[in-house]
Automatic annotation (TrEMBL):
Protein's recorded name: Glycosyl hydrolase family 1
Swiss-Prot/TrEMBL keywords: Glycosidase, Hydrolase, Signal
Keyword Signal: yes
Family statement: Belongs to the glycosyl hydrolase 1 family.
GO biological process, one term: carbohydrate metabolic process
GO molecular function: beta-glucosidase activity
Organism: Phytophthora infestans
Amino acid sequence: MSMLRLLPCALAAVTVLLAPAAAEERCFHKDFMFGSATASYQVEGAYTEGGRTPSIWDDFCREKPGLACANVADDFYHRYPSDLKMMTDDGLQSFAFRSPGRVS
């Protein structure tokens, strides 16, 4: 894997590690909530499980040679209990997740 591809991962890791320290140093309104958001295609995986239907992104990545499909992604579908625990352990107070491929 090239260094250029690793750069976003390294920046994300530094952001996650420094976010609690940065939050303590700043002054936020008492009702401010720290949170995170994602979409199913970015993290979910399990593209043939649980009644999931193909999305336009599934079709798109299969039509274009060389594009990586998110068949496994981060495997949030199977790992969500530990992922949610990690978010609460890190102090996140909200989480938005969109999964239209599983809504029928």
